[in-house]
Amino acid sequence: MTERTEPMIPRRLRVVDSHTAGEPTRVLIDGAPEVVGKTMAEKREHFRRELDWVRTATVCEPRGHEAMVGALLCEPAHNDCAAGVVFFNNVDCLHGCVHATIGVAVTLAHLGRIGPGIHRLDTPTGVVSFELTETGAVTVRNVRSYRLLAGIRVAVPEIGAVTGDVAWGGNWFFLTDAPAGLAVEFRNRERLTDHAWAIRQALKAAGITGEAGAEIDHIELFGPPADPALADSRNFVLCPGKAYDRSPCGTGTSAKLACLHADGRLQRGMTWRQAGILNTVFNGSVEPAESGGVHPSITGSASITGEAGLILDPADPFALGIPTEPGI
Ligand code: PYC
After folding, report:
1. How far apart are CA 160 and CA 163, in angstroms?
2. What pLDDT band is residue 211 in, cutting at 50, 70 and 90?
3. Ligand 1 geometric centre to CA of 5 (Å)
4. Among 33, 69, 126, 266, which residue's CB has the most CB atoms within a 10 Å radius?
5. Residues designated as active site
């Protein structure tokens, strides 16, 4: 029988906080145990299996909150990358995360580890490159994004039939219009949450998934922009832990770009301005990918909001955070 050893829990984790278009990112820059694996996907699995306490201590209450996304900096699997990164939230690891990639870019610049130019980041969904400009804007060239299913109808209890697309943008999304009478506006965030959550449960009950049975854990609702001079569309994105994305969601915008391209509505050289629930905007464009779908580029910016040492006091009953139930 193999003996299970208790994890060595450090007393202090160093983090840099930022927000990208309103959505927070907490970058873990020091103190966490090493994540092990030959690929970033293996490192993510090691983190999920062995180091879940790092996730809960970093982004769950009492130090974090439901909307906070964590990014653990680690050794990249590809040595031409500036860093490796594993993204996580209040309930689990994410596959990819574009707003947090922008947060990581601005954090690395804040720490003096990179300057303006093009850099590569190793992530569990593949190598992502980003360009940091002198003004602090960041353009992320995201992983190949594509629409898997178009015009899928799902029966949602107490709502009725909802039709939408299933697409990959670095996470799995179901994209649909918000219903008549439910405007995509901040004041409606609780009703939008309930609506999106009901769709997510209905997709699960109907066995509608992404590729290889992957759960569709992000729901994206669309409505007209508040100001058509500033944006082409406004979205509300419900994330896996039932927090809504304060930003327009970069992987969600990538999924949207893939659908627009598949519908012939967005070509190379055009810009799609995606507003989020706070009316902040990501600019998106596409390069068609050889194997189908697109390579999206997403431009946004992030502001540093803090630098801290998180203290993990063994006498604190909540030293490792208050875990959120995945099923909520
Ligand atoms: O920007 O890709 C994104 C994202 C995913 C979840 C929260 N933000």
Report:
1. 10
2. very high
3. 34
4. 69
5. 97, 249
